[in-house]
Specification:
- With 255 residues, the protein is of the alpha+beta class.
- The protein has one domain: Beta Barrel (L,D-transpeptidase catalytic domain-like), CATH 2.40.440.10.
- The protein is built from 4 helices and 15 strands.
- The strands form 4 sheets. It has a 9-stranded mixed beta sheet with strand order 5-8-7-6-15-10-11-12-14, covered by helices on one side.
Amino acid sequence: MRELPQNVTPPANGDANETEHLYSRRFVLSGAGAMTLLGMAGCSTSTLELPQFQLDDTVTGSVRPIRPAISVDKNVTGPDVMYASLNDGGFEVPAVPYQKVKPEFRRQIVVNETGEAPGTIVVHLQERKLYLVQEGGDAIRYGVGIGKDGFRWSGRANIQYGKEWPTWTPPPEMIQRKPELVKWQNGQPGGLTNPLGARALYIYQDGKDTGYRIHGSPEWASIGQAMSSGCVRLINQDIIDLYSRVSKKNPVVVV
């Protein structure tokens, strides 16, 4: 007679046939249960496809569905290349110590979550970021510095025109606040110390100059800060890149 499993108790009367019957019944039931499970597993002929996820640890640390790879752009590469020194318009633009610039404020391609059409420039004041919306669901994002409290503007407008190494003329009210700027009342020529930096894009609304600009700045440490007189400033290397992608009449949204 086969030995009983440890969890089977022999009948009190010691009937060997009944003991054998108990063992056999348990074996049959166990086998039937196993076959049932195998049958259940085998009845599914299709593969259940679950969504894939990835950790978005660059920006938010959130988990979101994987989307097709973002576009590739030869001018959006490593920071050591994007922020290297360069000669532009006869000026030697110094390299930016990008290690001191927060990664989120460096030029990069991101998923377009602005809801705006391709070609639109979106400035998000609270984020301190500017987005240039691209075809295909992406946007090129740049870190920016914005105006101090009381000097900011928001709304919808257009880029009327742009200038390379523009002249900067402080408005009369700025000269009143900072009398030392009177020497530039007729304009400060373009150059490395000019507050407008390497490029300026002039914002018009309903055909009128708003007085606000999107421009470069030699003060790279001001990116991510609120310290201007209302304009939106970028690192000089970034405004040169943005300027090359923008044409007249690009829509501008400042929120």
